[in-house]
């Protein structure tokens, strides 16, 4: 709880990594009760039990706490080696998640939406400190450091992984044979709404940096911004898809028009090239389009041309983004 509160509030963690104990035994709830004098032998590390999710999270807890302890200095950190070292430990934990708990494991969780949601949440929760650690760098200025491109690539891949999980529960694209799909979509949004918004913004940050790659390619490594195989068009499509899903949920519990406008404006700011005036116009158009889409979802009977939008409300935000 302390870790999640730190992530949500941006405050330092209070729990020391040294206070983290060993993970629980890999047992089902039915294997013991209050009268059991001694726990039975635990099952294999990859055997699916009621405890396997908690074991995976507990195994990475100390390193996730360490990562959050240095998040506050990530943007000002001159030497990125410590950040990369902390992040690499979490990447290792992601790779060590048992195959049975990985969202892409079709043999176990694709036909069970509850298990699929648990697997997705395990992945998202494990990635959160990693993204909190690397995101300030991706959203900041380019760094002339040989580690910087790899940090950006890892942040991008984790952000895209989280964004891809939407397709498992979004009723517009997910398997219609999955029962209670709307309920699981609502649960996913409840637990992961902030993650999805920040991940989409992180992708926008990567697009911005990749467009400026000539100014921050490392002279030592000669590498561009990471080794991403994603084109700019595919990244924009991912953000547009996220924007559409957020817009479709406008009016639902937890939705926020300001978040939709922010993402729409930021996306147009990284797409646009040219003068400040051209960028400002594109950003204003993005805000107008987002407002129109939200209006149509809230009031479908109102024609699009009846929307009276005053761009004065966005002048300050657009001006700041254009700079």
Automatic annotation (TrEMBL):
It comes from the Eukaryota. One of its GO terms (cellular component) is nucleus. GO terms for molecular function: DNA-binding transcription activator activity, RNA polymerase II-specific; metal ion binding; RNA polymerase II cis-regulatory region sequence-specific DNA binding. The keyword Membrane does not apply. The keyword Secreted does not apply. Keywords: DNA-binding, Metal-binding, Nucleus, Transcription, Transcription regulation, Zinc. Residues 1-48 are annotated as: Disordered. This is Unnamed protein product. It comes from Aspergillus oryzae.
